Amino acid sequence: MATTTNAPGGHTLKAFDEDLDRLRALISQMGGLAEHAIRESMRCLTQRDLEGALRIVENDKKLDALEVETERRAIQILALRAPMAGDLRDIVAAMKISSVVERIGDYAKNIAKRVPLIENSGAIGPLSLLPEMARIATEMVHDVLTAFVERDAEAALRVSARDQAVDDFYNSIFRTLLTFMMENPQNISQSAHLLFVAKNIERVGDHATNIAEMVYYAATGQHMAERARGGSVTD
């Protein structure tokens, strides 16, 4: 809830609340597009949908535009409303989060660009692990943005804790693909593409965790305790 009262600029508490609600709505809209892009990129990968992959790449422009709009509105609120305390943290967090969500959309776009390059992927075992890894990472994005809208610090903590599951998936896929490449050099090209996909999903989980830290700080004014994370084998 906004804490700002009537000020020289003539704005009211209700008007400020509406400004913040619109800002949160933009973040939610961005999150919805990013989540859809990740799910679609994985569907296109497993179903070899080349046209769908092209749509994902093209639709990334919508996320870029929303990031610009979010930043514009946030700066406008800062200039006109002079927010303080928790409201100020929320607005600054929204600006940072919009940039991170746009980057998550880029990872989905990167995966989509690999779809035409991967052939005979059904013969590569780790491909079956990628959709579940992506599901967890996508749910993290959804849940952490819901936590931002609801200013729920505890939910942000729970999202952060789930990043280890994504890292574990990545480590397993990395080792399996490495073995696959060593057993047959003909598998190197396709395995390398799948490893790139896995790394992009792993980065989605990392970014969701970064957002969780921002949400926690915006809600509490305190920094989240350092996470005890194993990390991926390539970190």
What's the gist of this structure?
The protein is an all-alpha fold and 235 residues long. 77% of the residues lie in helices and 0% in strands.
Q: Descriptors for this entry?
A:
235 residues; mainly alpha; Methane Monooxygenase Hydroxylase, Chain G, domain 1; 77% helix; elongated; disordered N terminus
Structure write-up:
- This protein is mainly alpha-helical.
- The protein has a single domain, classed as Phosphate transport system protein phou homolog 2, domain 2 (Methane Monooxygenase Hydroxylase, Chain G, domain 1), CATH 1.20.58.
- Helix 1 runs antiparallel to helix 2 and helix 4 packs parallel to helix 6.
- The protein is elongated.
Query: Quick check: average pLDDT?
Result: 88
Give the overall shape. Answer: elongated
> Percentage of helical residues?
over 70%
Q: How far is the first residue's CA from the last residue's CA?
A: 39 Å
Number of strands: 0
